[in-house]
Amino acid sequence: MDFNQTQAIYLQIAEYVCDQVQSGAWLQDEKIPSVRELAVQLAVNPNTIMRSYEYLQQQGIIYTKRGLGYFIDPGAKNIIVKTRKEHFIKEELPAFFHKVFLLDIDWKDLHQQYQTYLQSQNN
Fold first, then answer.
1. To bridge 26 with a disulfide, which of 20, 35, 40, 56 should be the other Cys (CB 3.0-4.6 Å)?
2. Residue 72 and residue 83 share a domain
3. CA-based nearest residue to 68, from 32, 24, 21
4. H-type helices in 1-123, by residue range?
5. Which residues span the membrane (predicted)?
6. Furthest-apart CA pair in the chain: how many Å?
7. What digits encode the pLDDT tens for the residues 2-43?
8. For residues 99 and 4, what is the distance between their CA atoms, to the nearest angstrom?
9. What are the Cα distances from residue 47, in Å, to 10, 35, 39, 42, 100?
10. CA-to-CA dists, residue 85 to 4, 65, 80, 81, 122, angstroms
């Protein structure tokens, strides 16, 4: 995993876990890699993974079964989508609209590009 300098590593790892859940790679009530396993896999300190797991547990994304490890919460995917959608609408969409305005991009052109994108995703 390539880490960037703009966000704390534990949050980037939490995003990675959320990506796995949202993509369906990790399913609800499924056991996820242990702290040590994920630390080796991502080449980071186990304490960083532990911090990520604690953060995700507070968010309701994962839960722990004593002695068994961490598991994906049944409502995790809904929480992730809701949180990411709110972030996109509040943080990323205004910047997008600003660029559309500055570049004087026609909404019809945007719509056509979006339709092309959707078709490419269905193939």
1. 20
2. no
3. 32
4. 9-23, 35-42, 46-59, 76-87, 93-103, 107-122
5. none
6. 58
7. 899 999 999 999 999 999 999 999 999 999 999 999 999 999
8. 24
9. 9, 8, 8, 13, 43
10. 22, 29, 8, 6, 22
Kindly report the pTM of this predicted structure: 0.83
> Three-state DSSP class for 37?
helix
Verify that 13 and 72 share a domain, yes or no. yes
Q: Do 61 and 17 belong to one domain? A: yes
> What residue numbers bound the domain in which 91 lies?
78-122
Token pair 């919460």 is found at: 73
Q: Are residues 16 and 70 in the same domain?
A: yes
Q: Is residue 2 part of a domain?
A: no
30's CB contacts (< 8 A; 6+ apart) are 71, 72
Structure-token pair, residue 67? 């002695």
Dist CA 90 CA 74 (whole Å): 26
